[in-house]
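Form P-L/3: holo structure prediction, ligand coenzyme A.
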Amino acid sequence: MIIRRFQPSDFQWVIDIERKVFNEHDPYLYMQFYEIYPDTFIVAQINGFVIGYVAGFLARVGVGRIFSLAVYPKYQNRSVGSNLLNEIKNIFRKKGALEIILEVRMDNIKAKRFYERHGFFQFGIAEKYYNDAHDACLMKLKL
Ligand SMILES: CC(C)(COP(=O)(O)OP(=O)(O)OC[C@H]1O[C@@H](n2cnc3c(N)ncnc32)[C@H](O)[C@@H]1OP(=O)(O)O)[C@@H](O)C(=O)NCCC(=O)NCCS
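OUTPUT (holo model):
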């Protein structure tokens, strides 16, 4: 598995993954993301295929924020997500982050368990955060 920075030719892969795993999507956000935060937009590649990505940014001094992390369904539960998360953790650390924050849907049990296993804890709730009025669980990791 290769973990590397996103490049524009990966765009279609990322959009396909996003479409498969999330209810809400906004393809153009990812190109903007690449233009503004190229250092913290990472993909996982196997046999020439991009099968996962993580997009984050330094939200403010000392605070990294994960905007989106996803793995193509067929490749889940094979540590791809963990590898992506570890990579972005290292990048944030090098950029001086002391903590990482993210939001995850309250009903996304799998992702919440995944983040907890990686040391994240819930520190708040954002009510009706998503377009369908679902709440978000706010999670934090101390680096
Ligand atoms: C959440 C998500 C990113 C995790 O990615 P993943 O590649 O499945 O993550 P991992 O494989 O590293 O870990 C998942 C589980 O597989 C298990 N696993 C990993 N490698 C394994 C192996 N070789 N053998 C057996 N189990 C393994 C892990 O123990 C882990 O268990 P958990 O349920 O306690 O977390 C992925 O499920 C996903 O894309 N979900 C949809 C999008 C989403 O919800 N994103 C998060 C909100 S931003």
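COMMENT: The pocket of coenzyme A is lined by residues 21, 68-71, 76-82, 104, 108, 110-111, 113-114, 117 (CB under 6 Å).
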